[in-house]
Design brief:
Length: 241
């Protein structure tokens, strides 16, 4: 990231999938991957960008998948929320190894390992240049971590929401299944909903649209992807009203 380049946003909400932490593993957290992600977040934070992060738990447990296997959905979702706390604590540790002060705040009360999420208490450390990792989704079953990310982005007043995936943006079709899938540099929230493009669940999209929070979807596996996005490179897809 060039020190002379002005960041495109003052405050961002970064949504990471749990699967993004696996790297080449089939389960769990790849130490090299989480260290690389923490390094990029540290670089962005050093530029004065305020960074909040929401992480999924799919690398450990996914409530909807457990429900399809016969488990009670509420129980499965609570297990998924606890998985996001594990990931958040791992990211906090990785950030601190990069000399970035980070706080984990959970929508579920787990006071022995992290703080409770309170909006005002989340905003204050952001203003001080600290990274805030927001765990346990919304604290409610039946809501995805994508929806939680949209909700938190709105609550903390983020200028931009970033969804880090393994795919470089939004496509007209699933690029893994269709060779003729077209990558869209820019798309509206309404088209995402109308065409059922695979970005985030509909609730998350509607919340971003109605509260005018732009969303950039990009491939986090690319080298320095996060820092390049903050520098204004048009990686992936911009979704806006």
């Amino acid at each position: 990231m060039s020190a002379s380049t002005k960041p495109v946003a003052r405050r961002v909400l970064l949504k990471l999938s749990g699967e993004a932490l696996m790297g080449g593993l089939k389960y769990g957290i790849d130490p090299d991957v989480i260290s690389r992600i923490a390094g990029e977040v540290a670089q962005v934070a050093s530029r004065g960008v305020e960074v909040a992060i929401v992480i999924g738990g799919g690398n450990i447990f996914r409530g909807a998948g457990l429900a399809r296997a016969g488990m009670d959905r509420v129980t499965g979702d609570h297990m998924g929320m606890l998985a996001t706390v594990i990931n958040s604590l791992a990211l906090q540790d990785a950030l601190e190894r990069h000399e970035v002060f980070a706080r984990v705040m959970s929508a579920l009360a787990i006071n022995d390992v992290c703080e409770d999420y309170i909006r005002r208490r989340a905003v204050r450390p952001l203003e001080k240049g600290r990274v805030v990792v927001l765990a346990a989704g919304t604290g409610n079953p039946f809501f995805t971590t994508d929806t939680a990310a949209s909700l938190r982005a709105i609550e903390i007043g983020a200028d931009l929401m970033l969804k880090a995936t393994k795919v470089n943006g939004v496509f007209t079709k699933d690029p893994k299944l269709h060779d003729d899938a077209e990558q869209l540099p820019e798309v509206t929230f309404d088209r995402v909903l109308a065409d059922r493009l695979n970005v985030m669940d509909a609730t998350a999209i509607v919340m971003c649209r109605d509260n005018e929070v732009p969303l950039r979807v990009f491939d986090m596996t690319e080298a320095d992807a996060l820092t390049r996005v903050i520098d204004g490179e048009p990686l992936g897809t911009l979704v806006k009203a």
